[in-house]
Design goal:
Length: 188
């Protein structure tokens, strides 16, 4: 049994039957391939179920504490982490360039949901932190990273099929939904 499958049962209840098996599996494989453990990680965003998978893999992980990363980038300026991870974080920020520019670490692993031309941007009606200001196309995210001083070394995309009937669920079978990159800080 892998690390991934052993901890799933704990979080299945939290996700109410929608646990992101494929996203977590692909993200962990990508992280493992490009930045193997042991490493010290600062994961942008509050502690979440994926952190446990990273820790079981051998990473030492700390998280930000819920501060507004659009306005307060001090945490990435002072962190002593070797790697910054940001999994589905930048789409929630109005100005992700600011935090990307201010990161002190030399390595970044980040993923974003891709813009789906057949679906509007996600907006929770009850939680103001759970809204997408951006839903990127891959070239937009690449441009953002490059402009903020990062060189992309590896990338991957994958689909996110849903167990529903209809035209949109059919499109999700072959339209990439997630985009992940490994980037290194450009040395000047």
């Amino acid at each position: 049994m892998s690390i991934f499958t052993s901890a799933i049962t704990d979080y299945t209840i939290m996700y109410e039957g929608t646990f992101p098996h494929k996203r977590y599996q692909k993200t962990l494989e990508f992280l493992r391939e490009h930045t193997p453990a042991p490493s010290k990680i600062l994961d942008l965003g509050v502690r979440n179920p994926f952190v446990e998978f990273m820790e079981k893999e051998g990473y030492t992980v700390s998280n930000t504490s819920g501060e507004d990363l659009d306005l307060n980038t001090e945490v990435v300026k002072t962190a002593d982490a070797e790697i910054i991870t940001a999994f589905e974080i930048f789409e929630h920020l109005i100005a992700p360039f600011n935090i990307l520019k201010d990161i002190k670490a030399d390595k970044l692993v980040a993923s974003v949901p891709l813009k789906l031309w057949f679906s509007p941007a996600y907006q929770s009606k009850t939680d103001p932190w759970d809204r997408h200001y951006h839903e990127f196309e891959d070239w937009q995210f690449d441009w953002l990273l490059e402009k903020a001083g990062w060189e992309i070394k590896a990338r991957d995309k994958w689909t996110h099929p849903v167990k529903k009937l209809g035209f949109r669920p059919l499109l999700r079978l072959f339209t990439p939904r997630y985009y992940i990159v490994y980037a290194e800080r450009i040395k000047n």
